[in-house]
Every structure is written in C-alpha cells, then in structure tokens.
Amino acid sequence: MSERVLVKGTEAIGEAAVRAGCRLFFGYPITPQNELPEYMSKRMPEVGGTFLQTESEVATINMVYGAACTGTRVMTSTSSPGFSLMQEGVSYMACAQLPAVLVNVVRGGPGLGDIQPSQGDYWQATKGGGHGDYKLIVLAPSTVQEAVDLTYLAFDLADEYRNPVLIIADGVIGQMMEPVTFPEFRDLNTLPKHESWALTGADGREKHIVVSFDIDPYVLEKMNLELVEKFKRIEAKEKRWEEYKLDDAEIVITAFGTVARIAKSVVEQARREGIKVGLFRPITLWPFPYERLEEIAKGKKLIFDVEMNMGQMLEDVKLAVKDHAPVEYYGRLGGVVPTPDEILQALKSKLGR
Amino acid sequence: MAFEVILKKPESLTQKEFTYCPGCTHGIIHRLVAEVIDELGIREKTIAVAPIGCSVFAYQFFNTDATVAAHGRAPAVATGMKRARPDLYVFTYQGDGDLAAIGTAEIIHAANRGEKITTIFVNNAIYGMTGGQMAPTTLLGMKTTTTPYGRSAENDGYPLHVAEVIKEARGVAFLARTKVNTPQDVVKTKKAIKKAFLAQIKGLGFGMVEVLSTCPTNWGIDPVSALKWLEEHMVPEYPLGVFVDKVGDEQ
Ligand SMILES: Cc1ncc(C[n+]2csc(CCOP(=O)(O)OP(=O)(O)O)c2C)c(N)n1
Ligand code: SF4
C-alpha cells in the first residue's frame, strides 16, 4: 500500500485519520474545509465507522467529548469561527484529559472574516483559546504528505498524553493536490483501550468518572498541577521542527505551514542573489522549539519572521531568540497570501538593501 | 433474631449522601432512576451524563460510569458516547436551565435524530444552583432573583412547554410529563422512566420524561408548601401525560 497517489489536502487528512483507526467523525459545514467532512461522510460507512453532521460546532465538540470519554478514536474539523465556538468544550476536554484530534483550517479573521487562507488563529491555538490553564498539542503541516503523517501521528499523541491534539492548516494546504504515500491501516485491535479510565460500563469493576470539575479548589489545583506535569513531559519530548539550508545561513526566516513553503522559494531566490538565507520551520507550534531556535539564532545577522497574521508566532520567536540576534517581521493579513517576491523585497529592505 | 431487608438503597446509587436541600425532589427522582436501572439489570452497561445545575453531583450519586457535560450539552455528549458505543446505555439528567435555555438546540436535535439515549428532565421552574434566577419554565408572575417584579410575558416571554415542543420530533419513542409530589405520582414517574429507558434498550429511539420538581430553597417556601405549590401552580401550566409511547405495554 505504499504507492503514491494524488490527493487534495483535506481528503488526505481524512484518509490518514481512517488509517489511524478513527471510526467516528462529527462536523458542521464551514468553508474552507467542507471537503473533509464530505470525504468522511462517504468513507466512514465504507469502513464501518460513523459520520454525523451536527447542529452546530458547540454540539460537535461535545459529541467529540462524549465519544472520547469511551476511549474511542474520534475527530472533528472546522474553520476559525467554528473553532471559536468549540472553545468551551476544548477546555473541558483538556481538563478531563480526553484524547481527540481536532482540525482547524484557518481562514481570514477576525469576525466572519473571509474564506481565504490565514494564520490568524496561532494565538488561539497555542495560548489556550478556551478558559483556564491548558495546552493543546498543535501540529502545523506545510505539505500534503506532512498533513497525512501528522494526522496519523496526532491520534497516537492524543492517546499517549490523553490530551486533545490540534492540526492547524489553511485553505492552501487544504485545497492543494500533491502526491502522497499513505501509511498502513492500523489494526483496530492494537489501539489503546484506556481501560484504566474510559467510560465503558462499570462491568465487574469500580465505576469510572471523567470530569473537568471539582468544587474544592485544593483538589482542582492538584488536577491542574497534574496537567502542568504532563505539559512539561510533552515539552521535553515532542518538539518538532525543520531546518532548511541553515548550515551557512546568515539570515534565518522563521515561518510555519503555508508561509514556510513560500519561504523556501524565498531562500532559493535570495541565495541566487548572494544573500545567505535559511529557514527554521516549527512543526509543533506547541510545544514551540524555543531551545533549538535560540541555538540557531546565535551569531546570525537577522531573524526574519514571516506570517499570515499580525505577528503572532513573532512573540514566541522573540522569546526564543532573546538578544542573540535582531528580529524583524513581515506579514499579510485578512487572508492575503504573500508572494516570494514581496517577502524577498521586505527582507532586503530590512537589510537596508 | 433475624432481620429481613425490605427496603434498601438501589445498587445503582453510591453510598454518597445527597447534597440536595431538604424537601428538594431531585433526590426522589435520582432514586427512581436508580431503581429502574437496577430492575432493568443494566447498571454495568450504563453511562450517566450529569448536567450543570444542582444535579451536577449526579456523577457521584449514580453508581455507574459517569461524566459531567458542559452546561446544556448533555444530549450532545450522550450522542457522542452512544455513537461510539451503541452497546452501552446512556442517559442524561438535566435541569430546566440546562435543557430548555442554553441547551435547547442539543435536546431538539438529539430527539429529532432519534438518538437512542434517555433524558430525565427536571423542571423546577427556576435556576437552582445559581441562586434562583428565572428559568425558561418560570411561571408568569413568578418572582425570582432576576424577575423581582414577577415574570412578565412582555419582557421575558412565556413559560416554555418543553414536552409539547419535543413531541413534534419524529425520532421520539417515548415522552411523558409527570410529577413527584404524591406517592401515586412517584409510582407513575417510575413507570415512565422505565419506559424511557426501554425505548433505548429496544432501539426504538429517543426517550424522555419531564418531571415537575420542587425547589423550596429558591421558591422561598417550606418543603410541604412546595409540594402543594407545584400542584396548584405548575400542573395547570404544564399538563401531565404521556405524549409519545412507541414502547407499548408488554415489557
Ligand atoms: C456556559 C455556562 N453558563 C452559565 C453557567 C452557570 N450556571 C450553572 S448552573 C446554571 C443553571 C442551572 O439551573 P437548572 O438547569 O434549572 O438546574 P437546577 O440547578 O435548578 O437543578 C447556570 C446558569 C455555567 N456553568 N456554564
Ligand atoms: S437549590 Fe433548589 S433545586 Fe437545588 S438542591 Fe436546593 S431545592 Fe433542590
């Protein structure tokens, strides 16, 4: 099953989820991610799974919560306004330590915004989004193949850490067709059963409860500290990033997802003009690879952060770089995708060229 | 001397003491649900979904696997569970703020999909947990902490008749409205709850019982008067009855 096939990003994510053993998908239509639920509505019955179109994103995330309570692999996908509506449920899931895979195909915002590709939900994705102290594991693919691989991985991470995992994409990755190699189908019998906590009926055992709640602040603080411990473990183990032409680079572009693809062209073009540029691309937006970026920043002429938002990852880049190198930012907002040319121009003007 | 146990706590209740106020009928309704689960022999295959409201602690009281849903979302949570594990029995236990205000969409759509879950809907005409504010089911003229001059149709709209709304949904397999202020009514309520579970067990569709309940604390009257007040004021507004019954009588 390792032949390469040409697929669209959204459908690739769906097929990867099916192969990861996901047999439950809940979703509510919103552009630009409709191809994913549409794909699942066709695919789930073929593999004995369930697709349900819900009455709202609020209902969706709570169905995901319910399914996850039983220890079953479950997924949903949405786009920005829909993800905003889900935040209460996401916070509940994080506190109750429920595994699930969520996809946000980010569109231009704030508000109703538009339906063009954007990275405007970086803060929402990485800094909480809902109420209370929690983190999601946030994966940001920049190719269709990577979307497949990260989706497959997302289910394992969710199960391992009992935490929701968020895949952040945008309309470019969602709509793009690329050849990919799909991973093998997981043998459903090998999936984790979560016997120690899942709600499956108190059959010959003590009852299980799954709650995001305790009326006693000292108990709730303990629950919080358990989460903090877990987040530290994730930070220690799960940071992922890509380094591109950094060996001799004097300038480092930082970018994720779609922009990182474009940035690769910028690197090539700049190098043809004799400017030694490389790319640092975080793949996990949380946990953010601070230490590696700090290492790389040492002695560099410039760290140039490029995003499709007002400079949201920029804050993490600055936290990483500290005063090892100057940091500049260039971005487009509202769903505008920057071209390699304009990024290069912006870079040159920062260099005073 | 040998003693015979003639009345014991249902197995489907834990040893934890109820935290409800004296005279609150949440406790009676809990016991009925537990007795039904015992009698149907499904305790070890049941998941309880507690709401946000005074019965948020139901997850501690029922001796079954249990969770607490976000405010109003219990039917969605139950849907997710049931779709993941159709072999289990899932019930929600919800107040009128939870089910009939913030969670209106979830309950209507769960009912309309014929979701094979059971809902126990406790209508006490007020928000208990948050201190006695107006509920969608608050009676006209009734004083609450947010209707200090009495609920006015002009400003606040009318008491919401949930069972009458839900009965239009074609996925409903059993639906009744009962009360628990007399022993006879307690018996009738138990029978209705049993049928609402049977609707699920037999795979017929969505089952719900709306139970008229008291909140002496926030109504500001003693427990005995509360039972009378329910009879005199709530029953005329919320007529009792069986609205849908696809379960039938042979059980
Ligand atoms: C999203 C959200 N909004 C508001 C609340 C606050 N809240 C807690 S309980 C409740 C009302 C519960 O009343 P009801 O459902 O009638 O149940 P009762 O307490 O009367 O049994 C409200 C508004 C909340 N917990 N979550
Ligand atoms: S506040 Fe009302 S509903 Fe809540 S436990 Fe007390 S009497 Fe019952």
From TrEMBL, chain A:
**Gene3D superfamilies tied to this protein:** 3.40.50.920, 3.40.50.970
Please give one Gene Ontology molecular function term for this protein: oxidoreductase activity
Keywords carried by this UniProt record: Oxidoreductase
Instruction: Check the record and name the InterPro entries matching this protein.
Output: 2-oxoacid_oxidoreductase (IPR052368), PFOR_II (IPR033412), Pyrv_Fd/Flavodoxin_OxRdtase_N (IPR002880), THDP-binding (IPR029061), Transketo_C/PFOR_II (IPR009014)
Q: Which Pfam families match?
A: PFOR_II, POR_N
Q: Which residues form the Pyruvate flavodoxin/ferredoxin oxidoreductase pyrimidine binding domain?
A: 15-188
Q: Which residues form the Pyruvate:ferredoxin oxidoreductase core domain?
A: 249-343
Record-given protein name? 3-methyl-2-oxobutanoate dehydrogenase subunit VorB
UniProt organism field: Fervidobacterium islandicum
Automatic annotation (TrEMBL), chain B:
First and last residue of the signal peptide = none
Q: Does the keyword Ribosomal protein apply?
A: no
**GO molecular function terms listed in the Swiss-Prot or TrEMBL record:** oxidoreductase activity, acting on the aldehyde or oxo group of donors, iron-sulfur protein as acceptor; thiamine pyrophosphate binding
Q: Which UniProt keywords apply?
A: Oxidoreductase
Q: Which GO terms describe its biological process?
A: cellular respiration
Q: Can you give the residue ranges of the Thiamine pyrophosphate enzyme TPP-binding domain?
A: 53-200
Q: Which Pfam families match?
A: TPP_enzyme_C (PF02775)
Question: From what superkingdom does this record's organism come?
Answer: Bacteria
Please report the name of this protein according to its UniProt entry: Thiamine pyrophosphate-dependent enzyme
What organism, scientifically named, is this protein from?
A: Fervidobacterium islandicum
